[in-house]
Amino acid sequence: MSNEFQTQLPPISDIWVYLSGSPLLALVLTLSAYLLGLTLYERSQRNPLANPVLIAVVVVTLSISVLDMPYAKYFEGAQFVHFLLGTATVSLAIPIYKGFASLKGRMSVLLLSLVAGGITSVFTAVGMARWLGVDESLVRGLVAKSVTAPIAMGIAERVQASPTLTAIFAVSTGILGAILGRYVLDALRVTPWWQRGFALGVAAHGIGTSRAFSVHPEAGAYASLGMGLHGIVGAVVIPYAVAWWF
Question: Is the pTM above the cut of 0.70?
Fold first, then answer.
C-alpha cells in the first residue's frame, strides 16, 4: 500500500514548479526574511547595525536572484504585505493619542524641528543629485522620498515620478536613519527620549519609528508624531514645491 501511495506522488520538481509559480511563495519568503531579521536583531541586543528591515531586504534580494524570479512575479505575493503599509501607518495614531498630554509646551519646538528637518531632507537630497548630474525624473522621486513610503508613493504619482523608485528611496532613507540615528544623536548629545524619537520619525520615517519603539516607548510615541506630521505636511506642500521648482 505504501509503495502504491508513493508512486502516486508527483516528482519533487513538479511540486517546486507549482510552488515557484504561486504568489504564496513570495509572501512566505517576505515574512520569513523579516522574521529572520527580527530574530537576529533581538539576539544582537537590538543593535541598530542589525536592522531587521535591512536584513530582510538583503535576504529577499538574494533569494529572488537565485530563484530567477521576476520582480513582477514576486510582487504578486508581496502585495499583501504592501497593502498593510497604509494601515500600519494610520495605526501609529494610537501612541500619539496616548502621549498627547505630554505635548504641552513642546509644540512650538516640535513644529520648528519639523520644518527644519523637512527642508533639510529635501534640499540635501536634491542638491546632491543635481550636483552629480542625476536625471530630473529621479530627482523628483528624491523630493517625494522625504516622507514615509506609503505617502511618498502617492506624492510621486502627483509629481510624475516613479512610485517604485520613490519607495526605494524612502525605504533606503529609513534604513540608514534607523542604523545611524543613534550615533548621530549621541554625537550631538541629544539625550531626552522625546527629542531623539521625534528626530527619528521625521528623518527615518516608519523604519526609524519602529526602531524608536524598540528602544523606548516615549521615543516611539514622538517618532510616530514626527512621521505623521511630516507625512501630512509633505503630502500638501511637496506637489506645489515641485511645480514651482522644476
Answer: yes
Contact 49, 71 (CB under 8 A): no
Residues in the chain, pLDDT under 70 = 1-23, 89, 92, 95-96, 99
Residue type, 45: Q
Distance between CA atoms of residues 225 and 38, nearest Å: 24
